[in-house]
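Marked as duplicate of an earlier ticket. Keeping the data here for the record.
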Amino acid sequence: MEVKIFTKIIKPKQSFWPSSPTSSDCGLETEINLWLASQPDIEIKNITQSQSGGSWMPATVIVTVWYKVK
């Protein structure tokens, strides 16, 4: 089994009220989707997500994809 780890620092909002109704993942979803599209010969076994920080510091999001090559 192999693993691919994606990490992104999410910029904190500048005020209490959000400036837009949608949340931004700073390109993390696009990065994961591009990697998945470039790997047609893998079988996903497990995906986990973790986040640290976020109150007064920027949040760091980590997505781990466990997979097997077919």
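See parent ticket for discussion. Helices lie at 28-37.
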